[in-house]
Amino acid sequence: MLARHWELERRALDELFAQAGMKSVEAQIETTSAMLMKTIVMQSDFLTFVPREMIVWEERANLLRPLKGIHSNWERHVGITTRRDEPTSVPAQRLIAALRESARAFNRR
């Protein structure tokens, strides 16, 4: 079970296989829904490739776990989009500040 070919996670997996000189895997199921992906993996013997941060709560509840010995140096970049000709509202400024602080805390791990 994998993300569709154009999704960042799938491209990262395909790149990981290519770097190892291997052919990309063919998914039995492709989806753009992270929730569906996690649910099917929890209820079957399927495997998937997702950022570890996506399964934090499931891992803590012992519902999902990463495979040992499988590592990727893939990084995900995130941006903030605002309107060009409009001032950013105070609540939006606070949200942006909170997101940036969370990102800094996450990067310190």
Describe it.
This protein is mainly alpha-helical and 109 residues long. It has helices at 8-19, 34-42, 56-60, 90-107; strands spanning 2-3, 30-31. It folds into 2 domains: 2-60, no CATH class; 77-109. Helices cover 40% and strands 4% of the residues. It starts with a strand and ends with a helix. The mean pLDDT is 86.
- Structurally, the number of domains stands at 2
**Unreliable residue runs:** none
Compute the number of helices: 4
Query: What radius of gyration results from the CA coordinates?
Result: 17 Å
SSE blueprint:
Layout: E1 2-3, H1 8-19, E2 30-31, H2 34-42, H3 56-60, H4 90-107
Parallel strand pairs: 1-2
Brief rundown of the structure:
The protein is mainly alpha-helical. It has helices spanning 8-19, 34-42, 56-60, 90-107, and strands spanning 2-3, 30-31. It has 2 domains: 2-60, no CATH class; 77-109.
